[in-house]
Amino acid sequence: MRVRTTSAVAGASALLLLTGCGAADMTKQASPFANARGAKTVTLSVQSWVGAQANVGVARYLLEHELGYRVDTVQVDEVPAWDALSQGRVDAILEDWGHPDQEKRYVEDKRTIASGGDLGVTGHIGWYVPTYFAKRHPDVTDWKNLDKYADRMRTAESGGKGQLLDGSPSYVTNDKALVTNLKLNYQVVFAGSEAAQITQMKQFAKEKKPFLTYWYSPQWLFEKIPMTEVKLPAYKEGCDADAAKVACAYPHTALKKYLNADFARTGGRAAAFLKNFKWTTEDQNEVSLMIADDKLTPQEAARKWADRHRSTWRSWLPS
């Protein structure tokens, strides 16, 4: 999802356009270097959306070039990533959008995972329409008026209803419950991945067609396709506690890092560096844009960012 919410969600694009489709348990894809005794290696979980790739790209580049570590990355879906982290198959997750069930199980009860602190970025999921449509029809930004535009949002995939475009079905979202509980004449349609969702939105925008989509910030695409959020019923603490009864907006979430508990204690300078790693939304978007739009690899984008922002990352290096 990026919920990312009581559930958390995440959008998904990909390292070299890898996608996180499917809900298969991918923990067995762990790096052969994970927890290698005596080896100066770090294994990072990388989720499929571009912002997560930006985090890992920069962390990897600096761990390798400034601290002399070998870094391996493993793509794991959001919830299985917690299992992999608990088992020591990966050492760190650098962007979590809020998984309270996993946090209670692994951080509070089992204590096999430790908090790595804030990433420095605040995430938010919502429903969006293109700004060019919102300017012509400003009332569309109130959820109560969405049905008025359902016919204009209809697609071949939405079965006669308006389409609410989502990303991968492996992401945890509240959208189906929201459509049902708010009694909206819409159908949630999954694009399959963040990359596929972006492709559809770009095509709609090219043709200046209206669309309604689940989307999130931070996200580089806002630079290319300005979008305006639809106001859902206000979020209040606990309003999303029952996934079947959700009828409120998504929260704003301070994105977190998590480390395997053993790695947090014994990971030396690498663990200290990852705990110190903290940047801004603008930083992340700068790297994300280079990956997604300029088609640089995460390592190439990380090198360019690092060359421009030495004063930022030098404070992350342990003494």
Q: What does this protein structure show overall?
A:
- With 319 residues, the protein is an alpha/beta fold.
- The protein is 32% helix and 20% strand.
- It contains eleven helices and nine strands.
- Strand 1 (41-46), helix 1 (50-65) and strand 2 (70-75) form a beta-alpha-beta unit.
- Helix 1 packs across helix 9 (281-292) and helix 1 packs across helix 10.
- The chain starts with 40 loop residues before the first strand and ends in a 6-residue tail after the last helix.
What is the element layout, followed by pairings?
Blueprint: E1 41-46, H1 50-65, E2 70-75, H2 78-86, E3 92-96, H3 100-109, E4 113-130, H4 131-136, E5 162-166, H5 175-181, E6 186-190, H6 194-206, E7 212-217, E8 227-230, E9 252-260, H7 261-266, H8 268-276, H9 281-292, H10 298-308, H11 310-313
Parallel strand pairs: 1-2, 1-3, 5-6, 5-7
Antiparallel strand pairs: 3-9, 4-7, 4-8, 4-9
Helix pairs in contact: 1-9, 1-10, 9-10
